[in-house]
Fold this sequence. Notes:
Elements: H1 5-15, H2 22-35, H3 40-51
Amino acid sequence: xxxxxxxxxELAARRGExxxxxxxxxxxxxxFVDLNxxxxxxxxxxxxxLARLDDEDDE
Length: 59
């Protein structure tokens, strides 16, 4: 288990029953980067990965 899995597990435990809009998630990611600019690159990569997850060209 990666160290970051603890955060993912907490997210699933606390909010696993919720449904959210992608626009809500995008706004939360922007808020996070505003508060933590040193994470801009990883958040950008994560958002791009999510956006392209179903693209057949990337396989």
